[in-house]
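Morning!

As promised:
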Amino acid sequence: MPDMKIRVPLLLAALAIATSVVADDDPRHVRHELMEGVRDAAKPVGLMLRGEAEFDGEQLMQSLMVWQDAAGQFGGLFPEGTESGMDTEAAPAIWTDRAGFDAALAKWATAVDAAIEAAPDTLEAARPVVGPVFQTCKGCHDNYRISDE
Amino acid sequence: MRRTVRIGAALAAALVVAGWWLTRPQTISAGDLPVREPDPVAGEAVFWAGGCASCHATPVDGERARGDAKLRLGGGAELDTPYGVFRVPNISPHAADGIGSWSMSDFVNAMQRGVSPQGRHYYPSFPYASYARMSTADVMDLKAFIDTLPEVEGETPDHSLDFPWNLRRGIGLWKRRYLSRIPVVQFDGAAAEVLRGAYLVEGAGHCGECHTPRDRFGGLLAGQWLGGAPAAEGEGKVPNITPAAKTLSGWSAGDISYYLESGFTPEFDTVGGTMVAVQENMAKLTKADRDAIAAYLKSIPPVE
């Protein structure tokens, strides 16, 4: 009887570890987290562009770095077998039109690199280089992301 | 016995005549139009507000038209609805295949009465029940703009609708019930900005066609105006955009206007689904018009 009591929680714990391991490594989970980080980095920059927050060059560079890093990882997170499940919002087109998806990704990376290169220190200087980064978010989602609802 | 039969026949005939009368297309004649020179430049703004390209632009490689392809109004998109499949017609200025040979009153009758030049009723999948609330001057400018667009060849095949939806005459009854030029939301002394927003949302913008639930005849439920609805095509839901909406209640008027301009939500996620094309159109309006739409959405009755 005491044995049993211990075994059940142990089993539950093992199960919890097992599922969390699977979920954490799963590319569907990783790419979802990655895009949430991308979004969180977009908010302070977007508020600057809207004129709702003071321009902050350091914050802008931080966000650009987050995007550069994400753009480097993102392409490797769509292996066969992760087309569906786990509420993924990845569109089937990523697998049927991989070249187009890679081009959208490259466009994003190029826009981010150009903005880092420019290192703008005023809002006026930031607008023309950061605007295209935001455009590429939308451009890629339009073709390669679906709504999970 | 003979007598009852005869009365029955007379009654039936009267009903047919009444039905015919009730369902007859009602039109505007050329003489009723305001006397003015239509302005194609003003018409372009009406074109984007009205979202004509979202349905009438010819798809490219099976995908919705983007960029300049939105100006090629050859039709051909399919709307898959519970009533059957509608195939959107060519409204480019091509004389034979499009509407190039139409008179101004033909166009106004289509847009505001839902009646074709041959006197047939259009299906409300062409959202004229909203366009009826546009000013006749705006509709005239719109035609002048469409006349400047590329002529596109080719007629689109007919709709494939289920009975009884395949009978156009019945639409006459539908119109008696749902076609009206009276504003949906009655404001008492609202600011000019809110009224401009009402004009754009309830008229050209036809936002209610997606965001308002319908009754079983496909008419919009005015009591749940913009309260969210199942998507007309495919699965999914179109969100509530009244002040009681779960998401939109947390957005300021500035947030709404920025979303319509940029496609970014206040959390900096991007617009999705069928709203993408609408947002791209809204981005082409003036900031004052987007602000007016936002002011209107903040002023309408909340729908829980």
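The radius of gyration of chain A is 20 Å.

Hope this helps with the figure draft.
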